Amino acid sequence: MATAADFNHNKPARPRPLVSADDVRGKAVLGRDGDKLRVVDKLIFDERTGHIAYVVLSTGGFLGLGQSYHPIPWSVFLHDDKHEGFSVAIDKRLLEGAPSYRPDSAPLFDDAYGQRVTDYYRLSATTA
């Protein structure tokens, strides 16, 4: 049986960490070195589970020219309370070789493409 001593009543209650997908768009994503990698453009959900599968980062470009998108598995993201954004254990060099696409050539986000993205980050994490 739990007693009052088993609970920390001095600890402030933290609100449930729910956030709108719209509020995540534009949030900064910091790399392992603390530098800003890119910003969140969109979230890709798995229809079967309802969970976030990938975060798509928007990179570069001016007025749409030279812009590209990099999907990264949600599992590598951590919320960064200090910077009110996200951090990932990758750097710009790793991101440069990652699967990406241009605004006019978005891939079909099917299991095969998802596996390609996941495999890249899994392989890179073990060799980086």
Explain this structure:
This protein is α+β, with helices and mostly antiparallel strands and 128 residues long. Helices cover 20% and strands 27% of the residues. The chain is built from three helices and six strands, in the order H-E-E-E-E-E-E-H-H. The chain has a six-stranded mixed β-sheet. Strand 1 (28-30) and strand 2 (36-45) form a beta hairpin. The longest helix is centred in the C-terminal third of the chain and has 17 residues, at 111-127. It is globular and about 35 Å long. It starts with 20 loop residues before the first helix and ends with a helix.
Please name the defining characteristics of this protein.
single chain; 128 residues; alpha+beta; six-stranded mixed beta sheet; 6 strands; 20% helix; 27% strand; globular; disordered N terminus
Q: Please, what is the average pLDDT?
A: 81
> What is the overall number of helices?
3
Distance between the termini: 48 Å
Q: Would you count the extended β strands for me?
A: 6
- Rg, rounded, reads 18 Å
Based on secondary structure, the structural category is alpha+beta
Compressed to H and E, one letter per element, the order equals HEEEEEEHH
- Strand arrangement within the widest β-sheet reads 4-3-2-1-6-5
β-strand percent reads 25-35%
The residue ranges in which pLDDT falls below 50 over 5 or more consecutive positions are 1-11
Shape, per Cα inertia axes: globular
For the report, how would you describe the main beta sheet?
Answer: 6 strands, mixed
Helix content: 10-25%
